[in-house]
Amino acid sequence: MKKAAITRLNILQKAFELIYEKGYLTTSIDEILATTAVTKGAFYYHFKNKDEMGIAIINELLKPSFENTFLKPLTSGGDSIQTIYDMMYEILMDNEILKVEYGCPASNLTQEMAPWNAEFTKALNDLSSEWKEAIINCIENGKKTRNIRSDVKADQVAIFIMSGYWGIRNIGKLNNSKSVYLVYLKQLKDYLESLR
Amino acid sequence: MKKAAITRLNILQKAFELIYEKGYLTTSIDEILATTAVTKGAFYYHFKNKDEMGIAIINELLKPSFENTFLKPLTSGGDSIQTIYDMMYEILMDNEILKVEYGCPASNLTQEMAPWNAEFTKALNDLSSEWKEAIINCIENGKKTRNIRSDVKADQVAIFIMSGYWGIRNIGKLNNSKSVYLVYLKQLKDYLESLR
DNA sequence: TAAAAAACATACTAATTAGTATGTTTTTTG
DNA sequence: CAAAAAACATACTAATTAGTATGTTTTTTA
Questions:
Q1: Could you read off the pLDDT of B143-163 as tens digits, one per residue?
Q2: CB 3.0–4.6 Å: which of A64, A141, B37, B167 could bond A167 by disulfide?
Q3: Is residue A102 within 8 angstroms of chain B, CB to CB?
Q4: Range 132-161 of A in CB contact (< 8 A) with B
């Protein structure tokens, strides 16, 4: 990788960590510069302004990592009910980047930025749509292989599952403990089984 | 009401509106003063600092309104499944204070303030706990009247329902449309019926 | 009704903020 | 290797922030 690309990636990564921990609007550029040992001149060479950096974090960092952990597991084949449950278990319990006390990065940004910048909302909506489509596909697959009832409305279930995920992230943040994740996962399992 | 109490309530109400729309940390005291026509001297007479006002908003405004719309409907008696569904429908579709584009005030504050002030988290956790208990009671009632299966784990279901609510608020914010609420409610209905 | 306390008003401060102006250094290219 | 472009560095600005210092006015109380 070229040196300039390293600088840019370094800014994005450190900025993401700070933003994930304490929010976008309350993470100052000076703070990002301090933890990266990058100067302001370099920062504004790579990004027109703070929001451009924010969008870059979503598209260049969040998106690829999201596709790996949220989407890829859904294409494994096998039993659809189990596949969806496993994906959720991995995301909530095993993922090393996502921390219960910080919630979901995409959810945090949605909450915080919706009133301020429509570009953020649009970029985050893309992620959300991708996930929804992947869940729908997985369910439709399950219907084909007779693991899921044919009368199940895939899009309806997809939205229900996604809302559960985002909500439990919020409850986790409130309780600062993964134990609510386990309670949620148990009920998710029961719910998913009711779709067979 | 005494005049001083009116001033205080006025600050809390206008501050709540601004905070609900654009966040706590990004709502400045000067902005609150501008929309209330209250001066800084008056503000700091009533509140030691900004955070004390924030906590007062939760305890003196959010809590009572929350108890009316989230808790009271759950004690109506009648069919528990229907009672829970009706509460959720009312909150999402009919409530005049809660707006789809702004999300849930309690959820917003949880997301935003968890990294900054544990007092906020504690106060919000109290609301969350109250709701959870009310849902659990409602389910246990349903079990007694044979409307809900005896093997249903009330606390598990309560957390599952709450997470769904918080999540769909987030998705609503992302889509800026109540239509996802209706999709969610349909699936919630199916899910609740599976508990009979 | 006069003294005391409560309630409010104004002008300030020190810190922090995103962003800019104007440089210098490093890398690439012909 | 020299010119040009890319990449970075430093010092600044104007606006905004929470909070304070020091008052005045209004209300309550003895």
A1: 999 999 999 999 999 999 999
A2: B167
A3: yes
A4: 153, 155-157, 159-160
